[in-house]
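Support case: 5-hydroxymethyl-3,4-dihydroxypiperidine complex. Customer-provided input:
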Amino acid sequence: MTSTIETRGLARTGSVTFPDGFIWGAATASYQIEGAAREDGRGPSIWDTFARTPGRVASGHTGDVACDHYHRFREDVGLMAGLGLAVYRFSTAWPRVVPDGSGPVNPRGLDFYDALVDELLGAGITPYVTLYHWDLPQTLEDRGGWANRDTAYRFADYAQAVHGRLGDRVTTWTTLNEPWVSAFLGYCSGVHAPGRTSPRDAFLAAHHLLLAHGLAAQVLTGELALTLNLAPVVTPAQALDPALELRPEDAEAVHRIDALLNRQFIDPALRGGYPAEVLEIVERHGGLGHIRDGDLEIIKQPVDLLGINYYNPCIVEAAPGESAHPAYPGSEGIRFASLDVPSTAMGWPIIPSGLSTLLVRLSRDYPEVGLIVTENGAAFEDAVVGDRVPDADRVAYLDGHLRAAHEAISAGADLRGYLVWSLLDNFEWAEGYHLRFGIVRVDYGTQRRLLKDSALWYRGVIQRNGI
Ligand code: IFM
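Agent response - structure generated as follows:
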């Protein structure tokens, strides 16, 4: 397929080839696809509770059945093999492995991941395991959740249990997926489980998640990764013209949100310290007493791979008098803006150049860590036409972002691979099943899988190692 992507007026065409050994894959997460919510000893997670709370998830959807991957994983691995994936990134469900969050390990929960790993290896696909993709055991939430320091230690125990069973075959381990989302959507804006709205609890959660990362890293062997939802922070005008000089008040707004969204997590994990702007904001939200002596030494572990989940830039500008955004305590005087550009069904602006900007910046500022895109993709309103899903808009989105990734490599970014989000349509959190991110369509009535045009296109990209 010849592709022409209009990106901010720039036509992007022509072929690009990725470096030899570039890693191609796809990603999913346990609660979003597994289903089997009450089987084989799995305990309840905060998402089971949240989804059952009226008004929290669109149409009252839950992850009870999801894509039934728990029973269909062999078929799904077959699809992955057919696409030529080198890597499959999935998460293990803590409440399947340790149903009460702490205490006895459930061997039947581990059996499932054991069989999945064997199936993947048998198909020549390398498993990348993420230990936490948001499904905290409900019993731990009842004891304070991530706002309780003890949860970090329980996470390390759970990590050890998973590693103990799979560590002979799994060599790439990601501790956390998007801790900013867990902390600030879960505990501050409340749009994700557990649905709390306390800025103080969100900052406690953020620190305890980082502590959990550090503690777990100490029990894992192999390649260690941490996946963050990172985004370039820009003003509306700068999103269209990156060379633009900013007014001092806009520069301050950009810097502050960059600290809260990006550096709050990267700097402790890679450098062993919080940005000064973050400490000042946390100080104003209940103090720094929860950051104990020695914590930052635990948090800073040798990370091999920084996983980047990129969907769109974060667009802000100075706006005196504006109150703080519900998910960004400390963002007073800043407006979160939108841009008049095409967007996905999530309403997220499509700006592929944000990915190259981000990757180049990360390799410049943090040269000690390798980079991998652990999520990138888009929800669109797909239509089934006969036995096809002609999702040209998703193909265009992926094409544009892969070209941006390639540009970043040419500009010196140490990008090792790209994992599309997502292999399957799945439970999109508060949006339920209404929004579809998969390159494979799932008919939730029959559980039939259908390769979308984007999957066929991606197969070609993998075969050619390029576009
Ligand atoms: O579906 C989510 C995923 O679980 C985490 N990153 C963003 C995706 C799209 O919203």
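The longest helix spans residues 248-271.

Case will auto-close in a few days if no follow-up is received.
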